[in-house]
Write a structure and sequence with these properties.
The complex is a heterodimer. By secondary structure, chain A is an all-alpha fold. Helices cover 76% and strands 0% of the residues of chain A. By secondary structure, chain B is mainly α. Chain B folds into two domains: 111 residues, no CATH class; 80 residues, no CATH class. Classes of the chains: A mainly alpha, B mainly alpha.
């Protein structure tokens, strides 16, 4: 078969794959974007009420505690997981070169998942929260999530098993690990908390471990799968080093499940637990730096492309955030620092760095790459993408730096026992004001994103052969030479 | 690398920490035997037993969790190697009381009867391990009963003079309008002057908070705060 024929067959296969997963992928991305805006609104509210407690005071359903809990849970279960599912389904189909035959079941399972989020959010707002961090949605929700997850994820496993052999790409390792470990982490955390009768402090340790493990072994691997896919694709270069990719993967998997319990240092637990977790927290910089370095070396000498390509720009931002996470892990887990920061806002800063700075940015990269392929339309407006990127980046830097460094000051003020506790309260007050402004910036950014992706979902993107770039001048037409706005 | 080897690698890399950090400690800490007092060191004999949180107090722990109080308040007094909590004024318990051994760090028996120990996420507000004492003292100073003080504090956290800079949210959702059932005797005013009476949740939470006194006398064998 000639090269031309192979290329045509290849292109047909890709088109067929994209078409087969179009509905579930767009379903997860658009519902995710919607929940992301809801979550950020709740984040703004929680942050506002932290320094302006009389705001909406008559509505106890929106008290600081409930709004904060709803904010993080909707972010995780409403946006992060569905975005990950959408990306996993598309990456796995493309990398295994298999069409999806179960799009209908996946969309149905996605509806069940979203039903779980609605029930959970209402539960938290109406005072039915379980009070277990990151597992606050009322008890029955986790069963709904697990059921939906199995129906969503199993097909990607099947695709991998029935693929026609050949090289297993780095992104596939990460996706397989995430798909395999998620149910183990999720089930054991919920069963140990809500089914078995354990010691209350050990339950708190399980919850803390759950937060850390779900980030390290689900969200970070999916983010890594995305950046390892997009960086070489957009730059047209192979991954810088295969050995580093292996090192990054296995160190992440080996260290990932040891973390979390350092947040309970000093609580009555077996003494080795927080120490081991803190050590794992410090060592996390090895996979973080390895993955980050490998991707940055792959994109090196393509800085112009990173300016133009939305996917590459978000990818680079995501790996820089990942390196930042590695550095923050070392800083926050030093015993001298942790005395103060253990119970300060820096924990929140670290979580937002992981969930938004690393994970969400990599998912935005994936979405800007995938959506034009599955909708057969190009993104409508470079200015929306630019707004989304700039405001997201500035906003998340502000929340993360403000919370981590501010949290350090807050912790130091709590530890300074010769000074009144109101000093610490004043620091927390200052950080909250800063966070409120930053979340409003992120809100504007994601309103632009939501609007943009909704247009794509109803096929109102550009009908063009040229990808929408962030910085490109199209001459007289705002949509390029062949860029008439497609309204049908 | 074959798929089997890959899966085995995953199981080993994840299974080991899961077993050592979660499964085994979960099993071994489920029932911890209470330590015994030592006649010589403690001046008394018998088992150290803490009152379990049952009934309304246990419900109060659930209300505390459901309203996200743990987002801003901790309930743990760390040993000195981990933090200065023991020396923060009134956080670690009462001084100079012959039934107590003074301020002490939290122990594994302090959270008995709760689903989860509300260790807490931040200290935007103070630690509540021994808030029961502080509430009683403040109530006495204001000349009201401890319960009355807690209800009013939950409704109007900033109305109390020394608490003007609090960012604690008002909790009107735990109360109901007074006139709905014709009760006016135990009504409390919210910031807008509405008369409210505490609902089931407010009562449970108040009971729970007033019982937060984690400084009971402990055997010398588990007293790591001793001089």
């Amino acid at each position: 078969m000639s090269n031309d024929q192979t290329n045509t067959l290849d292109a047909r296969l890709r088109t067929a794959i994209d078409k087969s997963v179009s509905n579930p992928v767009m379903f997860f991305f658009t519902t995710g974007a919607l929940w992301l805006v809801v979550s950020i609104l709740l984040g703004v509210l929680a942050s506002l009420k932290s320094h302006w407690p009389t705001f909406f005071e008559a509505f106890g359903e929106l008290s600081t505690g409930r709004a904060y809990v709803a904010h993080l849970n909707v972010l995780i279960y409403g946006w992060c997981f569905p975005a990950a599912f959408g990306a996993i389904i598309w990456f796995m189909s493309r990398l295994c070169r298999k069409e999806s035959k179960h799009a209908g079941i996946i969309v149905a399972a996605g509806l069940v998942w979203n039903f779980g989020v609605v029930i959970g959010l209402l539960g938290v707002m109406l005072g039915k929260s379980t009070g277990v961090p990151w597992m606050e949605f009322p008890n029955q929700c986790w069963v709904i999530f697990l059921f939906a997850y199995i129906l969503i994820a199993i097909w990607s496993f099947v695709q991998f098993r029935v693929r026609e052999g050949g090289h297993v790409y780095i992104s596939q390792w990460y996706i397989l690990a995430a798909l395999f470990l998620f149910p183990w982490i999720f089930c054991s955390a919920h069963i140990f908390t809500f089914v078995f009768d354990g010691h209350p402090v050990m339950t708190a340790a399980v919850a803390s471990w759950f937060k850390s493990s779900i980030v390290n072994l689900f969200f970070i691997p999916v983010a890594a799968a995305s950046v390892y896919y997009i960086a070489p694709k957009v730059t047209g270069r192979p991954v810088h080093s295969y050995s580093l990719a292996l090192l990054g993967f296995w160190t992440l998997i080996i260290l990932g499940a040891w973390g979390g319990i350092q947040k309970l240092t000093g609580a009555p637990l077996p003494a080795f637990m927080p120490y081991v977790s803190a050590a794992a927290g410090v060592l996390f910089f090895i996979p973080a730096l390895t993955i980050g370095y490998n991707i940055l070396m792959t994109t090196k000498s393509h800085h112009d492309l990173a300016k133009k390509s939305p996917s590459l720009r978000f990818t680079v931002a995501s790996v820089i955030a990942l390196i930042g996470m590695g550095v923050a892990g070392v800083f926050l887990n030093l015993p001298s620092v942790m005395r103060g920061t253990q119970f300060s806002l820096s924990g929140y800063g670290y979580e937002i760095l992981a969930l938004y700075g690393v994970f969400s940015m990599s998912m935005f990269a994936a979405i800007y790459y995938i959506v034009p392929r599955v909708t057969k339309r190009e993104w409508l407006a470079p200015s929306f993408i630019r707004t989304h990127f700039n405001l997201s980046a500035y906003g998340v830097i502000a929340v993360v730096m403000g919370s981590i460094l501010g949290g350090y000051l807050q912790g130091a003020a709590v530890e300074a026992i010769d000074q009144p506790f109101s000093d610490a309260k004043a620091t927390a007050y200052m950080i909250s004001i800063f966070n409120s402004i930053a979340w409003v910036i992120i809100l504007i950014s994601n309103l632009a994103f939501l609007f943009h992706i909704l247009l794509m979902a109803v096929r109102l993107g550009r009908h063009s052969k040229h990808a929408t770039l962030i910085e490109e001048h199209h001459g007289s037409s705002p949509h390029g030479a062949d860029g008439k706005v497609n309204n049908y | 690398m074959s798929f089997q080897k890959f899966t085995l690698g995953l199981v080993a890399a994840f299974g080991l920490p899961w077993l050592l950090l979660i499964a085994v400690p979960f099993g071994t800490t489920r029932n911890i035997d209470a330590p015994e007092f030592d006649e010589d060191k403690d001046g008394r004999t018998g088992l150290y037993e803490t009152a379990s949180r049952t009934g309304r107090v246990a419900n109060g722990s659930e209300v505390y969790g459901a309203n996200g109080c743990y987002v801003c308040h901790t309930q743990v007094i760390r040993p000195t190697n981990a933090g200065n909590d023991l020396w923060r004024d009134a956080w670690a318990g009462q001084k100079n009381d012959d039934t107590k051994n003074g301020p002490r760090e939290s122990n594994a028996f302090d959270y008995k009867g709760e689903l989860i120990a509300h260790i807490g996420l931040t200290r935007n507000g103070p630690d509540l391990s021994n808030v029961g004492y502080r509430l009683e003292q403040a109530a006495a100073a204001a000349g009201v009963s401890p319960e009355d003080y807690v209800y009013q504090r939950l409704l109007t956290p900033r109305a109390i003079l020394d608490n003007y800079d609090s960012t604690c949210p008002s909790q009107p959702q735990l109360f109901r309008p007074a006139n709905a059932f014709g009760q006016t005797t135990e009504a409390y005013l919210d910031a807008e002057g509405n008369k409210l009476v505490p609902g089931k949740s407010a009562k449970a939470l108040a009971n729970y908070l007033l019982k937060l006194k984690k400084d009971d006398f402990i055997p010398d064998s588990i007293n790591y705060s001793r001089d």
